[in-house]
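Table 4 source record.
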Amino acid sequence: MLREVTVTRYITPLREGGSLPGLIEADDLGTYVLKFSGAGQGRKTLVAEVVCGGLARRLGLRVPGLVTVDLDPVLGLGEPDQEVQGLLRSSGGSNLGMDFLSGAIGFDPLAFVVGAEEAGRVVWFDALVNNVDRSWRNPNLLMWHGELWLIDHGATMIWHHNWPGAQASAAKPYDVSEHALAPFGPDIASAAAELAPLVTEDLLAEVTAEIPEAWLVDEPGFDSPDALRRAYAEPLLARAAVIHERVKGIEGEK
């Protein structure tokens, strides 16, 4: 399970993202980017962050550490921005926090060079989780201490918004023509050979076990949180073996 912290101070909104995350301090003295349960797609966005963050970390990709964040909605009473106040007041209880990478700068494909091997691993991972939010317009990549870090995975696994159609949705190809790392000749075949064997039932069970149960209850069509956890794992397990064959948009790839 993810470690839990409690908000002690709301610092400022981060207006780069559409869901208006906030920068907070917590009772462990850490500083985190807070993703609100009351924003956008709500808890499904948080679940996607947990699954993708946990999976990426286990595959050796750099992602910020995650915690669950207990938020007292009373913090919203003193917030002058009405939009932020609404988020704070509607997100009482369990939310998601990501380690704040102080001093990190946004990745610019015109300013930084990424090797074909690393680019291939990131692109393969994004294909696996069907990340539609890593384009050159909005890379959701940071450079921190000279290394590439992956952030913002709330727009992944689109099939979890329509479970009856999940199997068909997860079988679709992945278009990387506008991916932020497409210009660097990503070696997707090598990434698949390295990473696909690591995506096992046991690994996915470990990853999905980190999803807080409160974010899985009352999902239509599922009789228990564990059944929903298995539903998250199954498309990823199936895609891991074949998704490199369904990548399109890069010369030399299918």
